[in-house]
Design a protein that fits this description.
Length: about 290
Amino acid sequence: MAEAATSPLRQRMIEDMTIRNLAPKTQQGYIRTIKNFAVFLGRSPDTASFEDVRRYQLHLAASGVGVPTLNHSVATLRFFFKVTLGRREIEDHTQFVHKPRKLPVVLSPEEVARLLGAAPGLKYKAALSVAYGAGLRVSEVAALKVSDIDSQRMLIRVEQGKGRKDRYVMLSPHLLELLRAWWKAARPQGWLFPGQNRVNPLTARQLARACHSATQMAEIGKRVSPHTLRHSFATHLLEQNVDIRVIQVLLGHAKLDTTALYTRVATKTIREIISPLDHITAKLKPGEPPA
């Protein structure tokens, strides 16, 4: 079946996104959101009024979608109106939703060891070990190629991570040993962790399933995902007194504020802080009341 012709409006929006070098996934998400907006309107989205935009936002809120979806819709509508339609007033009629920041779930070193030991097979043990041992995002683990492992310099190259930025992270001797064992067992070509058909890489869903299975096998009573291992990596480094700015670089965070969140869950560091009350008490003689 022949594909439907792309409308001039959609083509212009695609060109606008291409000029600004938006990532393919971002472009797909924007197009999908405008398509949903057009379905809601029942007509072409370039005929929408700002009152229509308001009604659409109320519709999304009433349907119970999450904050990320609401904010993605706002970002899409702003791009569409400001850039493609040239109607900059859209910013006066849209508002991003503030999402309360929750503390991440963090595993203890003992729990991490149990989880990795319970991984369903060498491939998933190696992939989950990369997530923890190098602090990589799930998408970054899946996108690793054999050539990204630099055993001479003991580095892992993360190509086009979040924000489309390259970076290097450390390769620990233990992780290198584990990756070599995996390579000798499977001889992967291209992708370090190939998917079921070996042409494509491991998917985030496959890794999430393996992580869930390992969590159950290890009898860890926390809500754990592969990203939990990244949280644990950052927290454990902070508890080892690694400079927070170094951790920021390893994680690939654009803002230090994002990395600073881990100071709130580094419980070992928090426990070791001496309270000013203890300093005052130490200066008082036993049985001597304060002045």
